[in-house]
Design brief:
Chains: A alpha+beta, B mainly alpha, C alpha/beta, D mainly alpha
CATH superfamily of one domain in chain D: NADH-ubiquinone/plastoquinone oxidoreductase chain 6, subunit NuoJ
Distance between the termini of chain D: 84 Å
Structural class of chain D: mainly alpha
Largest sheet of chain B: none
Strand content of chain D: under 5%
CATH topology of one domain in chain D: Four Helix Bundle (Hemerythrin (Met), subunit A)
Shape of chain B: globular
Strand content of chain B: under 5%
Number of helices of chain B: 15
CATH class of one domain in chain D: Mainly Alpha
Number of helices of chain D: 6
Largest interface: A-B, 49 and 40 residues
Order of helices and strands of chain D: HHHHHH
Number of domains of chain B: 2
CATH architecture of one domain in chain D: Up-down Bundle
Helix content of chain B: 55-70%
Oligomer: heterotetramer
Chain lengths: 392, 458, 159, 176
């Protein structure tokens, strides 16, 4: 059967050292991890070929959450598709909205007022923090530490509160729309946001004490699933996975959108402090450091936020000129790309979505061999896939 | 287990995705009776039970106290030995059940507090104390699932094999002088033997489930327990060699007379042996960071993945009973058992308090640390714990050799070290209580203003 | 390098493969013959002045009116910071094109997706299977003329 | 009276388990029957007042040896429920060997002069320790050397199959 015939690049024969007689060798076991498994973070199925605890090969199978977003896009108008982008990476809905809005604006030549641009930056970065909180917390959970998850959720709740105050939703916002943001933030929202940042910044040190520099945690994640930068680039890894491999590549710096070029921030990269560069710990810690940078960005953006309109003059039914565009933004999980083809109508002729998790996950079969079974959880958690985006 | 690599499934690909028909469930025998009773009386009985939970709780408390008093005062001397044994065993059963029930509730409260939550708050009137009772009722009503290709007799037997030895361990644990079912001269070995049998139930359940995740859990449990028994035993042997007895009652009695006479503070090697024992006992109870057999992020639920209903509860009970049992052994051997910190107040209450504290620390560790990987577990045992405990054993023996009236100078040195160790222990305890008090005082500052309103009971 | 420089550079070295190019507008790209794709891809990746090492996306666009399927390869260089795209047009009835997964391993899954949803066959792909749809799903859903199926494995769908 | 009842219960269990080992075809079941028998025999030791031997029987044989046995059976068996059936030729040989053993046991039981001794003192741990390190010191040390050799052999066989974690993870991959 095709399904369980695993495809190896180089089938490792780790057991054959020429001395151990073959009859006391253990046999290989095919282990079906998922689609429902606590550490696959959704409905991912990984077929593992194992020898005892040693994983010899892993083949991911996706499609359990395939909702045909690209096909739906061809049937609905541009504005109507914004809520569907919420469901791609449901942990970073603001960023998805932003990517789609920017792609449409690029093709339609729509200018966005400055206040909307700064609000977009603020909300995108807040959502980046929320998403990274989820990633770090659930990574602790994958490693068997329950408490960081709850702490991270405690802070995430606050961000959800801020989002709720701005747009009324806690998960699927559809707040950043074509031409700006849907409506202005309520009175005093900026102060609440600052209050949150003041509260949140010291908490990052707390996570580091509790989890990042925990000896067991470092032993579990350091030197595990090492992805050298060449491999990461070759497999199209982006976001924290690529930066964890030591490559300072961030679209917010490389091809700045919104107002990121006016804001001052650093690109954290993995240095291999606790193992080799590009191991799980590096990928994890890049996320923690990115939260600090996001806080910096939000503070600056809040300072620059001046009164003004938050919506450009865009007709109710958006009509784009015929043509195409490929636009990418830096999402919490990597670069989210929209390849938008228009034939001059009111709905996209074709919309291809490049989910960062989709590309990040493709490196799993390469990194998984020679890991232990428990390392698969570490690996998957550090790649931090959201299946809504892999399957779209 | 290995057939899967060779034998291909007969069903075509993707078939399992679209199974619409649910297998019909048939209740038979006892399960049928329980489900019938539960569906008939549950909707009335459970709310009533919970409404009068306080009353029932106090009534039960009064009844148990009266029962123990009457048995101890009047019935016990009159009865033939086997009837007395039955009574004591029933009492012990009640005690370990309460330990497990309170342990399960306590674990949830502890985890809640550590995670700046509240834990169960609704069931029962006060801090959700009846939560484990409600859970028990739920579990009894649950469907008793057995996987189709499971080895059914072994699958049914496994929870008992896990539970019964965990209970049997209590037969030799003394709660005080005279408060022991059977004072054997090999009591310590008996407890260890019983805790060693417990692993059989786990392996049996893991294997009989016919699930690969369960099998992995069983394998991990097997390796882990067999290896960690050695450092655990060696740490205890150091203590046993110090006092020269395997009888738990003797060991406890020898530590009479204040906290400085506890074995923990007798020499630095025993002080370290307490911690090696405690670490090894965490591994033998499958507690975090050694909870690999049931590591839920890796193995779903490990060896009890396929268990549901009351069989699952039995595994759960076995775990909490085992936790208390190893803590009880640590208490008797290292912490002076039922002896009070100041001389003359020996009581079984001290024993329970100390053991509960150790169980509490197990929970504390569990909700703080991540899980170790299996190769690190084995390395930690073979490379570090085992040589270290051997060293402790040798060191403790040498210390004993010199610590006698013939070596005046050394005796003075030993006294100083003992005093220092005692102070260290007290300091640690004081730090702990200070930290706990600080955390309690600042409990409202853990969460922000906007977050706090989401907490239940806020 | 600006898109026009890249196009000029490409036309200089691979004049026989590059059909046409668009240097301005929101989507600068070069249209490449299907036969020359592998060579152009390797050139883009390895040429020191281009170094397009990160394949961002492969998009397949169905054009029933033109009776072809366009494949767009969006690439970016992490070392030089410039972005570009190349396009290939394949026949709609028999879409075949050389796989670029030997140049960019990232293409492997993108090509599987294009195969799955658009029915483009990639030659010399190491593992060309469906990726999102079930293995036995009829048709390629993202084609413009795709008809919704009414039944799949005994499961009836509402129209 | 009660002791006799318990004795017959335990002895019956031990014999039944022994027969069950012979009759069962699943190797895992056999292992569990063996454990049952070992526990029953341990119970007999308890009944005899030899607590130390009984406890050691359970601790070592049930807790250690049997666990490893089950473990090994689980890991190395070819199928999920391995069946063991002797071949035709084997049956003859096994019957012969069994018969000879049975004969030898029966004869030795019949020809032994059974004498009733007083029970050994209950506190036997010290006695055992003294005799082990006194009278039987030579054999004791010999056995420990044997165990050491066995341990070294086991360690040799179980040399790390897990590759040392390091940057060679991605060695097998082709990065163009």
């Amino acid at each position: 059967m095709k399904e369980i015939e695993l495809q190896y690049r180089h089938p490792p024969d780790l057991l054959d050292d020429g001395e151990i007689p073959s009859d006391i060798r253990t046999e290989e076991l095919v282990l079906n991890m998922g689609p429902q498994h606590p550490s696959t973070h959704g409905v991912l199925r990984v077929v593992l070929q194992t020898d005892g605890e040693l994983v010899l090969g892993a083949t991911p199978y996706m499609g359990y959450l395939h909702r045909c977003a690209e096909k739906i896009a061809e049937k609905v108008t541009y504005r109507q598709f914004t809520p569907y982008t919420d469901r791609l990476d449901y942990l970073a809905a603001m960023n998805n909205n932003l990517g789609f809005a920017l792609a449409v604006e690029k093709l339609g030549g729509i200018e966005v007022p400055p206040r909307a641009d700064y609000l977009r930056v603020i909300f995108a970065e807040l959502n980046r923090i929320a998403s990274h909180l989820m990633a770090t917390g659930s990574y602790g959970l994958d490693m068997g530490a329950f408490t960081p998850l709850v702490y991270c959720f405690r802070e995430r709740e606050w961000i959800m509160d801020l989002f709720e105050a701005a747009c009324g939703a806690r998960l699927t916002y559809s707040y950043i729309t074509i031409g700006g943001v849907r409506e202005d933030v309520p009175e005093g929202w900026g102060d609440k946001c600052r209050e949150f940042l003041d509260y949140f910044e010291p908490k990052i040190a707390e996570y580091n004490d509790l989890l990042s520099f925990n000896h067991i945690f470092i032993n579990r994640t350091g030197n595990v699933g090492i992805c050298p930068p060449e491999l990461a680039v070759a497999y199209g890894l982006t976001g924290p996975c690529l930066r964890g491999s030591g490559l300072a590549w961030d679209l917010r710096k490389a091809t700045p959108y919104c107002r990121y070029h006016e804001l001052d921030f650093d690109i954290p990269v993995g240095h291999g402090e606790n193992g080799a560069v590009g191991d799980c710990w590096d990928r994890y810690f890049v996320r923690v450091q990115e939260m600090v940078q996001s806080v910096r960005i939000i503070r600056q953006a809040l300072d620059k936020l001046a009164d003004g309109p938050v919506q450009a003059k865009v007709p109710r039914v958006v009509k784009l000129p015929a043509g195409e565009v490929y636009y990418e933004v830096e999402n919490p999980r990597g670069q989210l790309g929209f390849h938008l083809v228009s034939d001059g109508g009111t709905s996209p002729y074709r919309l291809k979505i490049r989910g960062p998790s989709f590309c990040n996950l493709s490196v799993l079969p390469v990194l998984a061999p020679n890991c232990l079974l428990a390392d698969i959880a570490a690996l998957l958690g550090s790649i931090d896939v959201v299946m809504g985006e892999v399957d779209r | 287990m290995n057939q899967t690599a060779n034998i291909k499934p007969q069903t075509p690909l993707g078939q399992a995705m679209f199974v619409c028909e649910r297998p019909k469930v048939e209740y038979r025998g006892l399960s049928l009776k329980i489900v019938q009773l539960a569906t008939k009386w549950g909707p009335i009985g459970i709310p009533l039970l919970l409404r009068f939970a306080w009353g029932i709780f106090f009534a039960a408390l009064v009844f148990v106290i009266a029962f123990v008093w009457v048995v101890g005062r009047f019935i016990n001397p009159l009865l033939p030995w086997f009837v007395r044994d039955v009574v004591v065993v029933v009492g012990l059963l009640a005690f370990v059940s309460i330990v497990a029930i309170i342990g399960i509730w306590g674990e949830r409260k502890v985890s809640g507090r550590i995670q700046s939550r509240l834990g169960p708050m609704r069931t029962g009137a006060w801090h959700g104390w009846a939560q484990s009772l409600a859970d028990g009722l739920k579990f009894v009503q649950k469907e008793d699932l057995i996987p189709q290709d499971a080895d059914k007799p072994l699958f049914r037997l496994a929870p008992y094999v896990a539970l019964v030895p965990a209970f049997c361990a209590y037969l030799a644990i003394p709660f005080g002088v005279g408060w022991v079912f059977h004072d054997s001269d090999v009591g310590l070995l008996f407890v260890l033997a019983m805790l060693a049998i417990e692993v059989l139930g786990v392996i049996m359940g893991g294997w009989a489930s016919n699930s690969k995740w369960s099998l992995y859990g069983a394998m991990r449990e097997g390796c882990q327990l067999v290896s960690y028994e050695i450092p655990m035993g060696l740490s205890l042997v150091a203590a046993v060699a110090w006092l020269g007895s395997l009888s738990l009652v003797e060991l406890g009695r020898a530590q009479d007379g204040g906290w400085w006479s506890w074995l923990l503070f007798q020499n630095p090697f025993l002080f370290a042996a307490f911690f090696t024992y405690y670490i090894a006992s965490l591994a033998s109870c499958k507690r975090s960071p050694f909870d690999l057999p049931e590591g839920e992020s890796e193995l779903v639920a490990g060896f009890h993945t396929e268990y549901s209903g009351f069989r699952f509860v039995m595994f759960f009970f076995a775990e909490y009973m085992g936790m208390f049992a190893v803590s009880a052994v640590a208490t008797v051997i290292f912490l002076g058992g039922w002896n009070s910190p100041v001389p003359g107040l020996a009581s079984p209450l001290w024993f329970v308090i100390k053991s509960t504290f150790l169980v509490w620390v197990q929970m504390w560790v569990r909700w703080t640390l991540p899980r170790i990987r299996i190769d690190q577990v084995m390395h930690a045992c073979v490379k570090y714990l085992l040589p270290f405990t051997l060293l402790l054993f040798v060191g403790s023996s040498l210390w004993q050799l010199y610590d006698n009236p013939d070596h005046r100078l050394f005796e003075g040195f030993a006294a100083v070290v003992r005093f220092g160790l005692g102070c260290l222990g007290l300091l640690l305890l004081g730090l702990y209580f200070a930290g706990a008090a600080y955390g309690f005082y600042h409990r409202n500052q853990l969460v922000g203003q906007m977050v706090r309103k989401h907490l239940p009971g806020a | 390098m600006t898109p026009s420089d890249i196009i000029a550079f490409l036309q200089q070295h691979h004049a026989e493969s590059v059909v046409s190019a668009v240097a301005d507008g929101p989507y600068p790209h070069a249209l490449v013959k299907a036969e020359g794709l592998a060579a152009v891809a390797a050139f883009l990746k390895t040429q020191p002045r281009l170094r397009f090492d990160l394949l961002r996306c492969i998009s397949a666009i169905d054009w029933p009116a033109k009776n072809n399927i366009e494949l767009a390869y969006d690439v970016i260089s992490t070392s030089l910071g410039h972005a570009f795209a190349i396009k290939v047009v394949v026949d709609r009835a028999d879409p075949r094109v050389e796989s670029v997964s030997t140049v960019w391993p990232a293409a492997e899954w993108h090509e599987r997706e294009a195969f799955d949803l658009m029915g483009v066959e990639f030659l010399h792909h190491p593992d060309l299977r469906r990726i999102l749809m079930p293995e036995d799903w009829p048709g390629h859903p993202l084609r413009k003329d795709y008809q919704d199926i009414v039944e799949y494995r005994g499961l009836k769908f509402n129209p | 009276m009660l002791e006799a009842v318990i004795f017959f219960l335990l002895a019956g269990l031990a014999v039944a388990a022994g027969v069950a080992i012979l009759l069962s075809t699943s190797i895992v079941r056999m292992a569990y029957w063996l454990i049952t028998m070992l526990i029953a025999v341990g119970g007999l030791y308890f009944l005899l007042g030899a607590y130390f031997v009984g406890v050691i029987q359970i601790l070592v044989y049930v807790g250690g040896v049997a666990v490893l046995l089950v473990f090994g059976v689980m890991l190395t068996s070819r199928q999920l429920a391995p069946k063991l059936r002797p071949g035709r030729g084997e049956v003859v040989w096994l019957a012969l060997v069994g018969f000879v053993l049975l004969e030898a046991l029966t004869l030795s039981i019949l020809h032994t002069r059974w004498q009733q001794n007083a029970m050994a003192p209950a506190n036997s741990v010290g006695e055992i320790g003294r005799s082990l390190l006194g009278e039987f010191l030579g054999p004791f040390e010999l056995v420990s050397v044997l165990l050491l050799v066995a341990m070294l052999g086991a360690a040799y066989l179980a040399r790390p199959k897990v590759p040392t974690q390091g940057p060679q993870h991605a060695k097998g991959t082709t990065v163009p």
